[in-house]
Give the backbone structure.
Amino acid sequence: MFLKRKPPLSGGVKFIIAGLGNPDRKYENTRHNAGFIAVDAIAEKCGVSIDRLKYKSYCATAEMGGQKVLLMKPTTYMNNSGQALVEAMNFYKIPPENCIIIFDDISLDVGKLRIRRKGSDGGQKGMRSIIYLTGSDAFPRIKIGTGAKPEGWELADWVLSRFSESDRKLIDEAGQKAYDAAGLIISGSIDKAMNKYN
């Protein structure tokens, strides 16, 4: 007996999940790339590879919560993340409310999630670029804790420092939680996601 494969979803992309980070190999496994790490984890759970270059990003389409979703890792570098997102939003005509942004947050313990419906950039320059170029702060976001800057460190050096083995394990677990949280947001249950992970 043959198992019937689920037909691919028809229609266009309805949601974007963008993980923020820096594209060069030298930035792999750094705190500022927690968004990339989470989106890679989401892609793995969805059974897709983020390997298509489009909208100034590495991207892939996937299915989450019965919706077609564009997964994005902008190649614009963190501080210009908005350039990539705006291209994809304009192409698919997707409102900010349907764009989930995942990024690092040094005010949270390593691996801790904080979900927000909208709000200011909180000093995160990738988010600042997105808000500036779209003129909206109504983006749901999943922040991933990367730990507070230690005494004596410059901020730039800290966010570009690499995770220890134990911290990386926590970040990988956060990526799994981000998949669950993004699925809840897509299904219209952001309050449930906030109650579960904040």
Q: What stands out?
A: The chain has one domain: 15-197.
